[in-house]
Amino acid sequence: MDIGFAIVTASDTRGLTEDEAGAALGSLIAEAGWRVVEHVVVPDDVRAIGDAIVHAADEAGANIILTCGGTGLSLRDVTPEATRAVCDREVPGIAEAIRAYSMTKTRRAMLSRAICMQRGPVLVINFPGSTKAARESWEGCADQLEHAMKMTAGGGH
């Protein structure tokens, strides 16, 4: 199944060339046989993150948007709020599964505020900003993404 991904990294300190976590996600997407349609870095700002999600979903043709960063407890971590502002429906099981998987790696995973939602037919999944945690989050959900896209397109269980 052809799945187009967008990577939206939220960071006040990194640009695209320094975005190691986003680059790692791009490699994992390619290894799975899927494609990256867009990869951007935006400031830790609700409006900037929301605008990037909207653009990726509505104009860049992404089926799945992986946000990277902004899911922690810092007051600058606003990716979940930005996601809620521009999406329609929650998909809590994916975020729960990622946290449960990540808890087998580090107890600090319980501090994640990451969520998963849909903007129309587009799935938006919040990942943490560290390369290690982003890879682990991918491991915790990637095997279900193709089925999620089939269901979104009207397929059954």
Describe the structure.
Helix content is 41%, strand content 20%. The chain is of the alpha/beta class and 157 residues long. It has a single domain, classed as MoaB/Mog-like domain (Molybdenum Cofactor Biosythetic Enzyme, Chain A). The chain has a six-stranded mixed beta sheet with strand order 2-1-3-6-5-4, sandwiched between helices. Helix 1 (20-31) links the parallel strand 1 and strand 2. It is globular. The two termini are 16 Å apart.
What is the C-level CATH assignment? Alpha Beta
Total strands: the figure is 6
Largest sheet: spatial strand order? 2-1-3-6-5-4
Characterize the largest beta sheet: strand count, sense, and whether it forms a barrel: 6 strands, mixed
Total of DSSP H or I helical runs spanning 4+ residues = 6
Q: Can you tell me the CATH superfamily?
A: MoaB/Mog-like domain
Helix amount, in percent? Answer: 40-55%
Please supply descriptive tags for the structure shown above.
single chain; 157 residues; alpha/beta; Molybdenum Cofactor Biosythetic Enzyme, Chain A; 6-stranded mixed beta sheet; 6 helices; 6 strands; 20% strand
